[in-house]
Amino acid sequence: MKPRLVPGLRAFHDHSRETGSTMTLFEPETPATAAKTPVVEPAQRFRLTVAYRGGNFRGFALQDGPRTVAGVLTEALETITQHRIELVCSGRTDAGVHGWGQVVSFDAIANLDLRRVQNSLNSMLGPEVVVRDGDAVGAAFSARFSAQWRSYRYTIVNRPEPDPFRAETAWWIERPLDMRSLRAGADVFLGEHDFASFCRKGPQGSTTVRRVLESRWVDESDGILRYEIQGTAFCWQMVRSIVGTLVEVGHGKRKPGEVLATLRALDRQAAGQVAPPHGLCLWEVGY
Questions:
Q1: 95 C-beta neighbours (distance < 10 Å), count
Q2: CA 16, 21, 27 angle in degrees (round to 5)?
Q3: What is the CATH number for 47?
Q4: Does some domain include residue 201?
Q5: SS3 for 255?
Q6: Is 94 a catalytic residue?
Q7: Which domain holds residue 39?
Q8: What tens digit of pLDDT does each residue of 156-210 get?
Q9: 83 and 112 Cβ atoms separated by less than 8 Å
Q10: Do 124 and 154 reside in the same domain of the chain?
Q11: Do residues 246 and 240 touch, judged by C-beta distance below 8 A?
Q12: Active-site entry in 94, 113, 178, 219
């Protein structure tokens, strides 16, 4: 689904499409690209809080080809501002993962009317992608590097019948889960640990040591269970691996006391299955 264009800006969008001017977060720009879509000076840095339903995206980060949240958001911002936008995000969510409190930062013309930009973005991209709020920030602010913590929520529908209204945002598990066991297993993750057992390998030399500030289960009643985790940072598939392992604890396949041994094993094979992505949501980022 292509974003709807704001009235009066279609000509600029068509021109950009014809000239083929594209930009990614991970490829160095060429002089030709910079010449076609220059950043207007003087510039001001802005911050947006973005919510999105991740089911139709190949993750958040900009990619060459696949449809991503950053891709449609960047395209829409460039259509509105009529200059190149380099988007920085607080965390790159995987394909199918949702966002409620994703934060992005970017530089744009200093006199940008952010309220009008927000309205235009929501008109073009909503309800799939929605800008919840935004403001001007200092030049030193970075959505990624200024973040002090990030929190995720994972939702499970735990009852015999699936919920058609939560099918895209929650993992349906028919077998009953024992809440007491889930909570005992979740406590193990508090503090600073090497989460190698719960992370896919990253680039060579990267660390899997992370500090978790909160790890808990909430029973919302009517079979809706929510896992909440807050940490200074997370590695690839860490939250989904934790949830998958804790579900095995809730089913009695593992004892809560075995979770610590799994953590200390530093072996991805020691942990349980990776929970499906559609139950996970980047909930909030603290600065």
A1: 15
A2: 150
A3: 3.30.70.580
A4: yes
A5: coil
A6: yes
A7: 10-137
A8: 999 999 999 999 999 999 999 999 999 999 999 999 999 999 998 777 668 999 9
A9: no
A10: no
A11: no
A12: 94
